[in-house]
Amino acid sequence: MTNTNDDRYLKRDGRTVSKTYVAKRRSKYSKNKKLFTKAYVLLLILLALLSIFYSIYIHSYMKISQIYITGNEMTNDTDIISELGNPIGKNILFYNPSDYEDNINKLRGIENVKIKKVFPDLLNVNVDETYPLFFQDNGEHRVYISNKATLLGEDIDEYKQLPLKEIKGANLRENIGGNFTGSEASLKFLRAIQSYSYFNELNQLNLENKAQIGIMINDIDVKFGDLNNIDYKLKLLDKILNDVNSKSLDITEIDLNNGNDPVVKVNPESFSENLNY
Q1: Alpha-helical regions (H) of the chain
Q2: Residue burial 118-133, b: 16+ Cβ < 10 Å; e: rest
């Protein structure tokens, strides 16, 4: 018979339980509780994170394998890549573009550059470049004008062999590095026309008569009119040229002076009537 006053036993939840058994259970529970302390859990998390980062660092999926460069017309891709710190094969997470942007900005003609990381393995390098695009014969001298409509200087030998667009009749300024003319409308026109595909076929711009700007695109004489509604007229010209090309018409003149009703003159040998838009 159990002695209720025996120190070896106690009542627990209506049952008589050995004190030694309870002590062992508590001791085991205490050990398990101590095993999963906050420090231990944090250590496990840290080890897991280190394992993940190490796997990412050594994995080829995150290594730079492509470089995409835009905006450079005069500067070679190789010259730009050489200033990027040999990025091919480096982990993209640890590559810092800002460490190399200043190097590229020091290259001749480059005004600004932005390097963007495109995960998992691409560098996108966008260059803002100033380069010779136009020239105007000014008496005995040839004057060069940039894509940003700034004056580059006179008789620059290295520019003479470039396929530049000719400008006629512009009132040129003399401040090198500044706008080539004081006409804001002419500046806007020169910058805006470059965004259209037909600019590649442009031979000459005549800015002498501000009421009748002339454009030669291949053998097509474009009477642009004045420099009002520049954006609308340039878009309209683009639409007309695309339509003409799709119909394989041989045209000699486009007159934009009639507002919404431009006139297109077709070579009589290819078509017998004028096209009125």
Answers
A1: 19-35, 38-58, 77-81, 98-105, 184-192, 230-246
A2: eeebebebebebbbbb
> Mean pLDDT of successive 10-residue segments in the chain (277 residues)?
53 55 53 66 80 65 91 93 93 92 94 94 96 93 95 92 94 92 94 96 95 95 95 96 90 88 84 50
Architecture of domain 60-128: Roll (3.10)
Cite the residue boundaries of each domain of the chain with CATH code 3.40.50. Answer: 132-273
pLDDT at position 116:
96
Residues of the chain with CATH 3.10.20.310: 60-128
CB 198 within 8 A of CB 213: no
Neighbours of 275 (CB within 10 A): 17
Per-residue pLDDT, 274? 47
CATH number of the structural domain 132-273: 3.40.50
Residue 54 backbone dihedrals phi, psi, to 5 degrees: -65, -40
Rounded alpha-carbon distances, angstroms, from residue 2 to 7, 13, 120, 176: 11, 17, 75, 113
Residue 257 pLDDT: 86
CB distance 202 to 193 below 8 Å: yes
Q: Compute the distance between CA of residue 188 and CA of residue 191 in angstroms, rounded to an integer.
A: 5
Provide the b/e sequence for 96-107 (b: ≥16 CB within 10 Å).
ebeebbeebeeb
For the residues of 126-166, what is the DSSP string, one character each?
EEEE--EEEEEEETTEEEEEETTSBEEEE--GGGTTS-PEE
Q: Is the pTM of this model over 0.85?
A: no
Q: Which residues, including other chains, have CB under 8 Å from residue 8's CB and lie 6 or more apart? A: 18, 19, 20
How far apart, in whole angstroms, are the C-alpha atoms of residue 129 and residue 72?
6
